Amino acid sequence: MKLFGHPAPAAPRAALPLVATAVLAASLAAPRAEAGPADKVYRPLVEYGETEIELRAGYVKDERDGVNTTQAYVLDFGRGVTTWWFTEAVLEIEKEPGASLEAEELEWENIFQLTEQGQYFVDLGFFAELKLPLEVEYPFGLEIGPMFQNETGPLTNNLNLLAEWSFGNGYQTENELGYSAQTRWRSDAPVNFGAQAFGVEDAHLLGPAVFGGSRMGEHGKFKWDAAVLAGLTDDAEDWRFRAELEFEF
């Protein structure tokens, strides 16, 4: 049984305006916000008993020397421990311009599914993540917020609104509000098309995305997606290239 049992308010039949909603929410963010090039769009759904291994990568192209060629790689290992709770251990590795690859932090991610899939116009979940730095010069982090999913015809639309606090290790506490969003056209084709958007404060990126996947034997499957994102504002990266590969058992 999910945590919420009350009907959702009536909603229009048109697809959820993800990017517009996200940009409006991000306008309330605190300054000095940053987003990782390997960030993803989370779904508010949990599969009980499912084990997941995920690989993510991101690369930045920018005219600024201090940003250009920034890279990030993420390895996730997760499990659906109940019908409503998915928990995941995460290792994040980054490479700043002119530096070598470095393990930056360990993360503990949690997804809580709050409504049954398809029960209401919007599926609702809650995301919570604790970030533990591997270097003493970096702060701890806490990221929380709601996740939404809507299916309208052949479109699946997702929106995450996440607030993050950075604290500890001599840092003054800082906070930021960001978003990630995507829309995907579902079909039986091996590759589906859509779009993704990411942003915090005055830095917004948007671009086309591709999605695919297949079954692996009787009990396994893999999924992948990739996107090329263009900066929409001066504070955003010029280009971000991201990809994700997920194995589920």
Structure characterization notes:
- The protein is mainly β and 249 residues long.
- It has one domain (25-248): Porin (Beta Barrel).
- The protein has one helix at 18-26; strands spanning 51-61, 71-80, 85-95, 102-113, 123-133, 140-152, 155-168, 171-185, 191-200, 203-216, 220-231, 239-248.
- The longest helix is centred in the N-terminal third of the chain and has 9 residues, at 18-26.
- The chain starts with 17 loop residues before the first helix and ends with a strand.
What's the helix-strand series?
A: HEEEEEEEEEEEE
Count of domain modules: 1
CATH architecture name: Beta Barrel
Helix content: under 10%
What is the CATH homologous superfamily assignment? Answer: monomeric porin ompg
Strand order of the largest sheet: 1-2-3-4-5-6-7-8-9-10-11-12
* Overall pLDDT: 87
Please give the alpha-carbon distance between the first and last residues.
23 Å
Fold-level CATH name: Porin
How many helical elements? 1
Uncertain segments are: 1-33
- Shape estimate: globular
Question: Would you tell me the structural class of the helices and strands?
Answer: mainly beta
Please outline the major beta sheet: 12 strands, antiparallel, barrel
CA-atom Rg in angstroms: 18 Å
The fraction of residues in strands falls at over 45%
Task: Return the CATH class.
Answer: Mainly Beta
Q: Quick one: how many beta strands?
A: 12
